[in-house]
Each structure stands twice: as C-alpha cells, then as structure tokens.
Specification:
Shape: elongated
Strand content: under 5%
Structural class: mainly alpha
Helix content: 40-55%
Number of strands: 4
Order of helices and strands: HHHHEHEHHHHEHHEH
Length: 227
C-alpha cells in the first residue's frame, strides 16, 4: 500500500498546478488527448451523441442554454470562434473543458477511490484528519486564516529548530560558515542578513517564512519575496 500511495503522488501533482499556473494549460493538454481510444476501440467521449442528446433546436451545435448547467463553467474557452454556440469540432478539441474545476483538496478523493488497501488508506486519511483537527483550535468545525497562519508558524519553527540542532555543533544557538552544510552553505550570504558571519534562528526563521515568489503573467520576471 505504501508503494501504491507513492504512485498516487504524480496523480495528485496533476491536481495542484491549476492553482499555481492556472487551470487552462492543464485542460489544454488534456484536450489534445481527447481523441484517445480505450482498449475496445470506442471513443472515450462520443461528441456526436452528446450533441444529439442536448441539441434541442437541431442546428447541429449547442448553445450555452442547451448545454447542461454542470458543463457551462468553461463555455467561453470551448467557444473558440465566439459565435455563442459549440460546434462538434469545438467540443471534440476542447472536451477537457467539460471537466469540473480541479482543487488541491481533490487528492483526498484520489486516495479514497484509487487505494488498493483500505486499512492503509484509512490510516493515511486518519493522519490528515488529525492534522485538520489540530488546525481547528477553537473546535468550530471550520478552519480560518488565523488558525492556518498559526499552524504554519508552528511547522516552520519546528523545521528551523531541527536545522539548528543538526548544524549548530558548538551549541551557541547559531550556524557559522564552518558549520553550514547543503542549501544553508550555498545561500549563506543571503541568509546572513546582518552580515555578522553567522545565521541566527531569527534569520533562518524569516527566510523559511517567506512565501514563494509570485510569477507575473506572460513570462515576466518573478516578484521579489516579501521581507
């Protein structure tokens, strides 16, 4: 089961980029595969039958009103020629846009559906549940931003303390250039913000707490991390 869960990680990874780089690139990639055939040679999605089922005015295309409501969220992306209706060609090329929007939290459903060992899957889900319960400090049944930030600070603190405990050989509460290893050593100059020749817990905590740089649109350089 551990191996099976490991194999799920690439699947889960496909769910996350939508929030990082936008959902559209992933859906376009899926759309390019929309003509793939299953083992029996029948289309995975029969566009002709789909149009036939919902084309109430029999014009060979689907207007937004004819399209089932659950599929309307990406109508603008499907309607490439902007004529207010979806042709067979538009549906065939953009079938991936009919899929519901993905969320990072969908990995829970992947675990439940694709696990080949119920006992091990239940163990993993219990671990997730325990983490969520710790997040919900006021036991309200909801996780607010303040609780999320508090947990983040706690996790970062533990990670920083672990790094210092591992590298601070003389136990003076900071990391010297001689003690630094790996990424700490390679980025020592950046981490040592006061340029005193050592990295304190506060300096390491501040660096670990920075949010990832946000990418600007159209390939523009990333913004500088918040200080």
């Amino acid at each position: 089961m551990r191996r099976s869960l490991a194999l799920l990680i690439p699947v889960v990874a496909l769910l996350v980029p939508g929030l990082v780089a936008g959902e559209e690139p992933r859906q376009k990639a899926d759309a390019e595969k929309s003509t793939a055939l299953p083992a029996k040679g029948r289309p995975l999605f029969d566009v002709g039958e789909f149009i036939k089922e919902y084309d109430t005015n029999k014009d060979g295309a689907l207007s937004k009103e004819e399209l089932p409501e659950r599929f309307r969220h990406n109508f603008a992306q499907l309607d490439t020629n902007k004529d207010g209706k979806l042709s067979r060609d538009e549906l065939d090329k953009g079938v991936a846009y009919l899929q519901p929007p993905r969320r990072p939290s969908d990995f829970v459903f992947v675990l439940v559906e694709m696990s080949d060992c119920d006992e091990c899957c239940a163990e993993e889900l219990q671990h997730i549940y325990d983490v969520l319960r710790k997040l919900d400090k006021d036991r309200s049944g909801k996780i607010d931003v303040g609780e999320l930030q508090a947990m983040r600070e706690e996790l970062v603190s533990k990670r920083v303390d672990g790094i210092i405990a591992q590298l601070d050989l003389n136990k003076d509460g900071k990391i010297s250039q001689e003690e630094a290893r790996g990424m700490i050593k390679r980025h020592f100059a950046e981490l040592d913000t006061n340029k005193d020749g050592s990295i304190t817990r506060d300096e390491l905590f501040q660096a670990a707490s920075q949010k990832p740089a946000k990418l600007k649109s159209k390939g523009a350089p990333a913004e500088k991390p918040e200080s």
